[in-house]
């Protein structure tokens, strides 16, 4: 930008800032793309920075809601219920009542197998 000339944003720059803000691009990176510093970006594009992020979140929410309610995406429905309805999964952790030093080799192997199976069930859902 030329010294002494006031920055005047274009409609194309406004669309770019709004989109990049919605994608989660950091302000510093948006400023770099436009060859302006972050302070100038925030001064001239406050509306686009705020709305871009809000509009993107609303659009993803709308898409997720549609996937969850049309019955073709169980993961979306589960996520929605966890995030919006407070649902949660319960995992029960059972520890052996006896110290390992007091267990036989067979009992130790059985505990190892049980723990691995439990971990695979939790991790592999």
Report on the architecture of this protein:
This protein is mainly alpha-helical and 125 residues long. The protein folds into 2 domains: 11-85, no CATH class; 90-125. Helix content is 68%, strand content 0%. The protein has helices spanning 11-23, 27-34, 38-69, 74-85, 105-124. Helix 2 (27-34) packs across helix 3 (38-69). The protein is elongated, with a radius of gyration of 26 Å. It starts with 10 loop residues before the first helix and ends with a helix. The model has no long low-confidence stretch (mean pLDDT 86).
Largest sheet: none
Number of strands: 0
Runs in which pLDDT lies below 50 for 5 or more consecutive residues are none
Distance between the termini: 54 Å
Rounded average pLDDT: 86
Helix tally equals: 5
Give the total of domains: 2
Broad structural category: mainly alpha
Rg from C-alpha positions? 26 Å
Helix/strand order: HHHHH
The fraction of residues in strands falls at under 5%
Helix content: 55-70%
Overall form? elongated
